[in-house]
Amino acid sequence: MSSTPFDGVRAIRPVTALTDVPNRVSYDLPVHLRGWTLPPEWAWGSEGVSMDHRHYQEVRDALGRSLSLVSAPDPDHVEWLAEEARQLAHRNHPAIPTTYHYWAPHAQNARGPGYLRRWISSETVGARVRRTGPEEIPAVMRMIRAVGSTLAYLHDSGQTHGGLSPEIVWAAPSGRFWLLGWQWALPREAVPDGLLPDRRWTPMPPEWGDDDWSPTLVSDQWQLAATCYAALTGELPNSLEVPPVRLLRPECPQALANILDHALAADPAGRHRSVSSMLRALERVSGSRSMFVSAPAIPSALNEEGRLRWAVGDDYEVLGFLGKGTFGSVWRVRDLSLEREVALKMLHPSVAEDEDAVTRFRREARLAAMLAHPAIIPIFDWDSRGEVSWYTMELAEGGSVADLVARAGARPFDEVAPQVDAILDALTAAHTNGIVHRDLKPENVLIDRYRRWRITDFGIARGPDEQAGTTGTPAFAAPEQLLGEAQGPAVDCFGTAAIIYFVLTGRPPFDADDAASLLAQQLGARFDQSIVAPPLLPFIRRGLSPEPEGRFGDAGVMQEAWRAASKEMARDARRSDSWWGRVLG
Question: Global pTM?
Answer without folding.
Answer: 0.77
